Amino acid sequence: MELQDYKLLVTDFDQEAASRVQGTLNARGMNAQKISRLPRIDNLSEDNDVVIVIITGGVHEKPSLNFMESIKYAPASLGVICLVEPTEPQNLAWFDSLGVNEVFEKPVSGEDIAQATSRLLERNRLVGSIGIIGRTPPMREVIERVAQYSQVGSTVLISGDSGTGKELVAQALHRLSGRRHRQFIAVNCGAIAEGVLESELFGHEKGSFTGASSLRKGHFEIADGGTIFLDEVGEMPLSVQVKLLRVLEEKEFMRVGGSNRIRVNVRMIAATNKDLELEVERGAFRRDLYYRLKVLSIVIPPLCERREDIPLLFNYFIKQFSTENDKKFAGIDPEALEILKNYDWPGNVRELRNLAESMVVLSLGSRIRPHDIPEQIFRRGSPERLLPIRLADSTQQPGGGSPGSTMELGLLYQAVLEMQKELRELKQMLAHNHITSRPAYAAPAAGGIERHRYENGKNNVTAASHDISALGSVRFEEDDDGLNSAGAQSMRDVERKAIARALESVDGNRRQAAELLGIGERTLYRKINEYGLK
Question: For the chain, which domains are there?
Answer without folding.
Answer: 3-132 (3.40.50.2300), 139-303 (3.40.50.300), 306-386 (1.10.8.60), 432-531 (1.10.10.60)
